[in-house]
Design a protein that fits this description.
76% of the residues lie in helices and 0% in strands. The protein has 21 helices and no strands.
Length: 401
C-alpha cells in the first residue's frame, strides 16, 4: 500500500510540474498577444517549480515590456492616446519581474546550479533605459492624489539603484536624481502617514542639494514626539537649508519655549553672518525683544524696513511693541495704586507718552497689512482708548466689534 501511494504521489507531482511547464509553453505561444500571455504565465509565477526558474521571470518580464512598449509608442504617434494606467502597471511589473529573475538566477549561481549570470546584463540594460519613466508614473500618481502609487513608483526608482543588478554601475550610484526622487517618495509616504517609509526615503532624499529640505520636513513630522530626534533633524535642516524658514522658525520656537534665548541668538547670528536675510533679522529682533533690549530691536527692525518686503509691517509692529509693552508694565503697576497716590498720575503720563510713540508705528503696520490684525488690532484699540475715544470707536466699528 505504501508503495502504491508513493508512486501515486510521484505521478501527481510529475503531472503538476508538467502542467506548469505547459503553462509556460502556452504563454510563449501567445507572445503575439502580450496581454493574454501575461495572464497565462501568472500561474507559473506562484508554482515553486516554475517560479524557481529565472527564465520564467524573464519571460513574464518580457511580456510586460511588450505591453509597456505598445502603450508607450502611442504617446509618440499623431493623435495617439495611451492608457497610462496600463502603461504604468506594466512598467512596475517589468521591474518587479526582471529583479526577481536576477534574484533567482543569483541563487542558482550561488548553489552551483548555474556557472554564471546569463540574463542580468540584458535585463539591466532594459531597466536602466526605462527607469526614468517611473518618475512620470510617480508624478502623475501624486498629482492625482494616489499617494500609494506615487510611493510605489518613486520608491522603485530609488530602490533599484541599490539592487545587486546595478552593484557595479557607477553612473547609477552617482545619479543625483536618486536622492531627488527619494525626497518625493518621503513626501508621498508622509501623505499616507507611513512613518517607516518617510524615514527610509527621507534619509536618502535629504542629501539632495535643492529639494532635500522636503525630506527633512517630513522626517521632522515623524519625530514630532521624540524631542531628541526631532531637534537633530531641525538642526540639520537649518544647516543644510538655511533659506528654508521652516527649520529656523521651529528651532527658534524651541529655544524660546525652553527659555534658551542666548542659544537662539548664537544660532541666528551665525546664520546672519552668512546672509543678512530679512527673516533672520526679524527673528533676531524677536529674541532681542525677549531680552528687553529695545534699542537693539529698533536698530534691527530699521534694517528690515530699509530692505522692504513682506516683513516690513511686522518690523513696524515689533518697534511699536518696544513702547506698548513697557507701558503695559506701568498699567499693571497702576492697577495696584490708589488714584490719590501721586505716583498714579505720574505713571499715567508715562503710559500716554509710550502710547504716543507706539501709535504711529502700529498705524504704519496697519497701513501695510490691513488684514493682519494680530500685529496691530488690539494694541491700537488699547492705545486709542487711552488717547482718543473717537479713534477707538471708529476702529472698533472697522474691526466689527
Amino acid at each position: 500500500m505504501k508503495k502504491v501511494l508513493f508512486t501515486a504521489a510521484l505521478l501527481i507531482g510529475t503531472l503538476t510540474v508538467s502542467a506548469q511547464q505547459n503553462v509556460v509553453k502556452e504563454a510563449k505561444s501567445k507572445k503575439g498577444n502580450p496581454v493574454e500571455a501575461a495572464k497565462i504565465i501568472e500561474a507559473a509565477l506562484t508554482n515553486p517549480e516554475t517560479a524557481n526558474n529565472p527564465e520564467t521571470w524573464k519571460l513574464a518580464g518580457d511580456f510586460q515590456k511588450a505591453i509597456y512598449d505598445e502603450e508607450n509608442m502611442k504617446l509618440y504617434l499623431p493623435n495617439g492616446k495611451a492608457d497610462t494606467t496600463k502603461l504604468y502597471n506594466s512598467l512596475a511589473k517589468l521591474f518587479e519581474y526582471y529583479l526577481k529573475c536576477d534574484e533567482v538566477e543569483q541563487a542558482k549561481v550561488a548553489s552551483g546550479e548555474l556557472k554564471k549570470l546569463k540574463l542580468r546584463k540584458k535585463n539591466a540594460e532594459v531597466l536602466k533605459k526605462v527607469r526614468l519613466n517611473l518618475v512620470n508614473a510617480g508624478g502623475d500618481s501624486y498629482n492625482n492624489g494616489d499617494y500609494a502609487s506615487a510611493l510605489k513608483f518613486f520608491g522603485m526608482f530609488v530602490d533599484v539603484a541599490e539592487a545587486p543588478m546595478f552593484a557595479d554601475d557607477l553612473e547609477m550610484k552617482a545619479d543625483t536624481l536618486t536622492s531627488l526622487y527619494a525626497s518625493y517618495a518621503s513626501l508621498a509616504a508622509n501623505m499616507l502617514k507611513d512613518k517607516e517609509n518617510v524615514l527610509k526615503y527621507g534619509k536618502i532624499g535629504k542629501e539632495h542639494k535643492e529639494e532635500g529640505y522636503r525630506a527633512l520636513m517630513c522626517m521632522a513630522e515623524v519625530y514630532a514626539g521624540d524631542t531628541i530626534q526631532w531637534l537633530e533633524v531641525i538642526k540639520e535642516g537649518t544647516q543644510k537649508f538655511p533659506n528654508q524658514n521652516y527649520f529656523v522658525g521651529n528651532l527658534m520656537d524651541y529655544y524660546l519655549n525652553k527659555g534658551m534665548v542666548d542659544e537662539a541668538l548664537t544660532q541666528i547670528n551665525e546664520l546672519l553672518a552668512q546672509k543678512e536675510d530679512p527673516y533672520y533679522l526679524y527673528v533676531k529682533a524677536v529674541l532681542m525683544f525677549e531680552k528687553k533690549q529695545y534699542d537693539e530691536v529698533n536698530t534691527v527692525c530699521d534694517k528690515i524696513i530699509a530692505i522692504g518686503g513682506e516683513l516690513a509691517a511686522e518690523a513696524y509692529a515689533k518697534k511699536a511693541d518696544c513702547y506698548f509693552w513697557p507701558a503695559q508694565a506701568i498699567v499693571e503697576e497702576n492697577s495696584t495704586l490708589s488714584i490719590e497716590d501721586p505716583k498714579y498720575n505720574t505713571n499715567e503720563e508715562k503710559i500716554k507718552a509710550l502710547y504716543e510713540q507706539a501709535k504711529p508705528l502700529y498705524e504704519k503696520a496697519k497701513e501695510l497689512e490691513p488684514d493682519n490684525k494680530n500685529i496691530w488690532g488690539q494694541f491700537l484699540l488699547n492705545i486709542y482708548w487711552k488717547l482718543n475715544k473717537a479713534e477707538y470707536e471708529a476702529l472698533e466699528k472697522e474691526m466689527g466689534y
